[in-house]
Every structure is written in structure tokens, then in C-alpha cells.
Amino acid sequence: MQAAGCVSLNISIDTANREVRKRVVHKNFSNEEISENFRLLRRRKINVFNNMIFGLPPTSAELSHTIIQDDKDAIDLEIKAGVRFSSRSILIPYPGTEIYKYCEERGYYVMNVDEFGESLLERSPLNCFDDEQNDVMKNLLYLSGLAVWQPWLALFIKKYAVHWRNRFAKKLYLAIYYVVKVYTLKKYIYTIKIKNPWRGLKDFIKGFRIEVFRTLPEMRKTVTYPAPRPKQK
């Protein structure tokens, strides 16, 4: 791959918990294998873009706290493995899939089309997670990229920052999420030089608006891009 000009690779670990990875998403490889193979890619100067799924269903609702811990542990695994860009999404089980059947059988989730959201930044739809766990999960989604990019912040983020649930913190974390996402993607994964700084700034602002719109409750279901402004008569 290196000889062919490959500079980055998109991979999905999905969760830091091997048992959950095997039981829910049917991927049977160890964390040690992940770290070893990712480090091999780094030695070949191939940067890793990794995907994690937050809010995977526990074996019982009483064990939902273990899933939140798995989501925190994902940061440590990615740091150890040398991941360059960390992406997160919150699980939305789709009808017809095995994971939907798994959740439905345990009473965690039955899809309501009127409440269905398309954004990967949604709160978990599974009823086994309480409001505090949902807030921590979303904060982890916003801050994990920063923790993986700057490992010296990881402990502070996991122990303190993700548990701050006020409105200011949520807005700040969204801004951090987007800035880190744009920077690390362009630096390590899609290494494209911006020839026109002004155009780059405009694209950055437009992209940030998209992320903000997608997190607004009243816009979640229909908005992918900011709606055009009505023409003045």
C-alpha cells in the first residue's frame, strides 16, 4: 500500500471492549492485535482513521455504566495504537439488522419514525441509558478527538470534562470537536494543501454551521445543510 501511494487508512474498531465487539458487532480480534497492526501501519507512514460506535447495547440495563466505561477506554486504546484521526458516532439500530433485533428483544428500543434522527451526533435512542449517561456519551463524542490528538489531556477529559453538563460546556465542546476534526483530517488523513486561505476559511465556517444545525432538536430530522435564506421581496 505504501508503494502505491497510500497515506491513510479508514478502519473501524467499533469498541474497546473485545467481548462487546465480538457479541454485538461480530468482530473477533483482540486489542493487542489492533495495537500491533496499527503501529505497523505507522511505521510504514500510513495514518489511521478509526471509527468507534458509542452506546452499544449492554447485556442488561443494569450494566449500562460498563458501556460508558468502554467508551472512555476507547480513548486509551486509540492512543496506544497510534490512531491519527478519531471518529465517533452514537448507535442507531436500524430495523432489519441484527443489532436492532438484539435491542428489541431486550426492550431497549423500538423505532418510532416520527422521533427518528439522522445525525450521528444524536443522543442514544436506547432506553437503558439515563440522562446523565447520555450527556457523558455525547461529551465523549465531542472530546475524544482532542484526547487522542493530545494524549496529555486524556485523563483530564475522561475524569472531569465529560461530566460537565451545563449549556456553556456543551457549546464549547461542539466547537472543540469541529476544530479538531477539521485540523486532524486535513493534516493526517486528507493531506490537501489549501491554496486559497479565504476560501478555506469560508468552507470552515460553512462546515461549522452545518454541525451546529445538525445538533439543534428542531432541525435534527430534516437538516443536513443550513436552509437557504428566503429572498427579500
Short description:
With about 230 residues, this protein is mainly alpha-helical. Helix content is about 50%, strand content about 10%.
Helix content: 40-55%
Kindly provide the radius of gyration, computed on alpha-carbon positions and rounded to a whole number of angstroms. Answer: 19 Å
Count every beta strand, where a strand is a DSSP E run of 2 or more residues: 3
Mean pLDDT metric: 83
Distance between the termini: 57 Å
The geometry reads as globular
SS class: mainly alpha
Taking the sheet with the most strands, its summary is: 3 strands, parallel
Count of helical regions: 8
CATH topology: Transcription Regulator spoIIAA
N to C succession of SSEs: EHHEHEHHHHH
Low-confidence segments, given as residue ranges, are: 218-229
Q: What's the number of domains?
A: 1
CATH C-level: Alpha Beta
The spatial strand order of the largest sheet comes to 1-2-3
Strand content: 5-15%
CATH architecture: 2-Layer Sandwich
> What oligomeric state best describes the polypeptide chains here?
single chain
